[in-house]
Write a structure and sequence with these properties.
Blueprint (H helix, E strand, L loop, with lengths): L17 E4 L2 E4 L1 E4 L8 E5 L8 H6 L15 H4 L10 E4 L33 H4 L22 H30 L2 E9 L14 E4 L8 H13 L4 E3 L7 H6 L6 E9 L4 E2 L4 E2 L2 H23 L8
Parallel strand pairs: 4-5, 4-6, 6-9, 7-8
Antiparallel strand pairs: 1-2, 3-5, 7-9, 10-11
Helix pairs in contact: 5-7
């Protein structure tokens, strides 16, 4: 796996960049690290950021509530237990509406920019057509974000300053985990609206696991994960309606010992989506997820972990 996600820019070991919010400087992302790595897992929450850069708010035409409609509400809190189980959690602090880390580095909509985009930019993906590229044009309710067009320079600078270091850090965590344990399993953590489109029979799942239809992770690991969730009462679907995005596609290399599973959690289980606040279900969901992950870590340790990892 290469760490080079954006052409000539490689891994950086610098502290994460920061940006200005109304409350002061904020790191672009954080790694919550375990006291000692004991599990071959890495967790990532790229869409749960809720610290809004001042310049972004000033450029937006949306009010304080409308602009939040793309957030994966409180997913970082749902999984903040994983360091205690021996795995790191990487989570973005900036919001998805500002920059979407689950896209190719340069999926950009030419309608958003004042000048012509460089030739290396992907302007024709389905995600760009829908307004949800690397720098989104709309929020989840299909409302335009910006008052006016961006310059190409500020768009590319945003990607280089925030997107590239996040993925460099994620690559490093996976590389270090695989070197230590002989394999690495990335759990890419997301949430979905409670109005998620129904499956046959009118079913609205509680949780959707995505493995790119069997290409991004061992079916055995996915099966264990789904089984433990089902044992705790959750209706679990596989790959429908979410099979995994760019992160799952890029990092999932089962033949090379790198597995990636996307998890989408129904927000209705733990949050008031209209008021952007958690409700009483969050603590119970977090508790059950911690039990599931602890059991999955034990399973993987028994079946897959390289003996030398314990040395």
């Amino acid at each position: 796996m290469t760490d080079n996600v954006a052409g000539s820019i490689g891994y950086r070991s610098d502290p994460p960049p920061s940006f200005e919010t109304a409350a002061g400087p904020c790191p672009a992302f954080e790694v919550l690290s375990p006291p000692r790595p004991t599990a071959p897992f890495v967790f990532s929450s790229p869409h749960s950021g809720r610290a809004y850069p001042l310049e972004f708010l000033q450029a937006s035409r949306l009010g304080s509530e409308a602009i939040r409609r793309s957030e994966d509400l409180f997913v970082d809190q749902l999984f903040d237990f994983v360091p205690a189980l021996g795995a790191p959690l990487l989570h973005a602090r900036f919001p998805r509406a500002f920059l979407d880390l689950n896209r190719e580095p340069f999926e950009l909509d030419p309608r958003m920019f004042a000048e012509e985009l460089p030739s290396f930019v992907n302007t024709s993906s389905v995600r760009v057509a829908g307004g949800l590229g690397t720098i989104p044009r709309i929020v989840a309710e299909r409302e335009d974000i910006y008052r006016s067009k961006l310059t190409v320079a500020e768009g590319l600078e945003r990607i280089e300053r925030y997107y590239v270091p996040y993925h460099d850090t994620l690559s490093r965590l996976l590389r270090d985990t695989q070197a230590r344990f002989g394999l690495a399993i990335l759990i890419d953590c997301h949430s979905m609206p409670s109005t998620v489109r129904t499956l046959p029979g009118g079913r609205r799942p509680d949780i959707v696991l995505g493995d790119r239809f069997g290409t991004s992770a061992s079916s055995r690991i996915v099966g264990l994960f789904a089984g433990h969730l089902a044992e705790r009462g959750y209706d679990v679907a596989l790959n429908k309606p979410y099979a995994g995005g760019y992160i799952t596609e890029r990092y999932g290399r089962p033949a090379a010992g790198l597995h990636c599973i996307q998890i989408e959690i129904n927000r209705g289980l733990y949050a008031d989506e209209r008021r952007f606040v958690p409700h009483e279900g969050l603590a119970e969901l977090r508790r059950r997820l911690s039990e599931v992950v602890a059991k999955l870590v034990m399973d993987v340790t028994i079946e897959w972990e390289r003996p030398a990892a314990a040395e």
